[in-house]
Amino acid sequence: MWLRCTSRRLLTPFNRALKHGRLNASSWSGKVAAVMPEAAGFQGVTDRATLQEFSHAHSDSFWAAMANHRLTWTSAYDTVQDCDLRRGKVKWFVGGKLNVSVNCLDRHVLTCPDRVALIWERDEPGAEVKVTYRELLEMTCRLGNLLRRRGVKKGDCVTIYISDALAERIRDANSSTVITVNQGVRGGKMIDLKKTVDAAVDTCPNVRQVFVAMRTETPVVMKDRDVAMEEEMAHEEAVCEPAAMDSEDVLFMLYTSGSTGKPKGLVHTQAGYLLYASLTHKYVFDYHDGDVFGCVADIGWITGHSYCVYGPLANGATTVLFESTPIYPDPGRYWETVQRLQINQFYGAPTAIRLLLKYGDQWVHKYDRSSLKTLGSETGGICIAPRPSDPDAEIVPGMAMRPFFGIKPVLVDNEGEELTSKSASGALCIAQPWPGMARTIHNNHQRFIETYCQPFPGYFFTGDGASRTEEGYYQITGRLDDVINVSGHRIGTAEIEDNHCSAVAESAVIGYTHDIKGQGVYAFVVLKKEADITEPELRQQLKDSVSKSIAKYASPDYIQIAQRLPKTRSGKIMRRVLRNVVERDLEGLGDLSTLDDPTAVQEIIQGHQALCNKQQ
User: AMP-dependent synthetase/ligase domain: from which residue to which, for each copy (predicted)?
Assistant: First the structure.
């Protein structure tokens, strides 16, 4: 997720907004410096296209101007970049020092202390909490002072636990401090996070303290290592001297959900990540002072990091932190929130939008969405997107389209040769480093090199396939490792999944072992609530659609209708789990604690068994 350029789909409610031209944008033609002040002084830059060219040809000058204008530095950097993609070496703004909290809080308190920084959209609608920049800075300082008093030093790793498999991550990160809450609240349900932390920390001898905040009034057992966080923060001063951090000091490590095996900790550093999050938040979403920005992603995932927290706060924005689910208390929750909070930019997960498709359009139309200027589906560090562009520039629903400034995508064939024709399809790579990219995998830089740098030497491999149109627009076609080999024909699962009939809300396709074909195609589908179709009719429609658009050999052997698909809290479908069920490897299901609702797996197992019995 962290490296995905953009979603390959913008689905029904978003598509209508796009087709009706409701996405606003500033004009780039003839007055680039008026739209992007950082670009003032760039020779020969007169519009978006020439700015794009400048950002590639003069990368150091471009990124230096961005960094000097958008970030507040404690001391200046010596070198803009020191990168070698062949060796997985990525360093930006070498020698510079800054503090991320100063950039996100202190400098805004000087100019707009009473501006709302955070709107905490609690699980229960209408119970939102607003926090100003002044209040957020004081809270941050109190927590910083508490951590310092309790022995946390510069460079230490602190684990913030919301809801993921924990023990293995703590051990890998060598973390001695954990922060959690007594309970999580989501979709009207209470999640006993403290109990999970206790069980995990019992197997992590390096942990010496656990800070516990109280999200609910439910008391929890406090052990000797536990610290009542709010009580202790109340005793701390509201001023905390910020530390000067090197540009390449670690900002955070974000662990994968573990959906493809052992979790890996992707490392992001201070200056480059903050700059890229700030820049993309400002220009992709056309954010202006006074707007209310609503990213409803899980704050614990990379999209939440970039576009709930770091990007908006670096820009002095008002940002919404969404605690609930898209369907609590009903499927109109997103749009009710838009109406009540007057959200101007809405950024949601494509999986969430697909989920809402099954409930119909009436929930969208029920609420006033006139405050919305921009709609988008999420990724953690936007590299390709329809905006920024001129207001009248074409937008193709569901297509990634235009590279962001400083991003140089290329398509590469199986021999590693760059495809230079306008219309082409291949592996999507990035030809030049950019400041927001991850630096390494914690404790395993070789794995980082092998995964992202070695497949196509000299390029950063995204793991995606893509196509490019005659106009130069990019379309993400899906993960290249999501490929099924049927009788020697290699088929991307995304190609099959795109063949929906009108009754289908979302689907997931996997390959399974087939005695004759090598691999067969097994499809899981979730129907819309109002779907009026028999199972035989559905199966025939889907088979016919795939046969017509791809080939008969790609037609699914099995089509299992499910009420829901197993997903992580970040919305990622756990295809590994689906494969294990179909291959009847239930012992290999592994850790399911990252799932939004683990009971979905049992439903899939029962449905699979019923389908097999029916087709025997």
Answer: 106-162, 163-377
CB 383 within 8 A of CB 404: yes
Could you tell me if 112 and 314 are in contact, meaning their C-beta atoms sit under 8 angstroms apart?
no
Return all residues near 339 (Cβ < 8 A) that are at least 6 apart: 367, 368, 369, 371
- Largest pairwise CA distance in the chain: 72
Residue 588 DSSP SS3: helix
Answer whether 335's CB lies under 8 Å from 14's CB: no
Give DSSP secondary structure letters for 169-209: HHHHHT--EEEEES-EEETTEEE-HHHHHHHHHTT-TT--E
* 379-424 pLDDT, tens digit each: 789 999 999 998 889 999 889 999 999 999 999 998 899 999 999 9
Could you give the CA distance from residue 540 to residue 372 in angstroms, rounded to a whole number?
A: 40
Closest CA to 306 of 274, 284, 283: 274
> Which of helix, strand or coil describes residue 255?
strand
Pick the closest to residue 30 from 18, 45, 19, 43 (CA basis): 45
Distance CA 27, CA 391 (A): 6
Enclosing H/E stretch for 318: strand 318-322
For residues 575 and 259, the answer to whether their CB atoms sit within 8 Å is yes
In 3D, which of 445, 412, 449 has the Cα closest to residue 431?
412
Q: For residue 472, what is the enclosing H or E element?
A: none
Which two structure tokens, joined as six digits, stand for 550? 């791809």
Residues recorded for the chain: 616
Token pair in block for residue 252: 């955070």
Query: pLDDT digits over 66-94, tens only?
Result: 999 999 999 999 999 999 999 999 999 99
Q: Which of 442, 116, 384, 150 is nearest to 267 (CA)?
A: 442
CA distance 253 to 250: 8
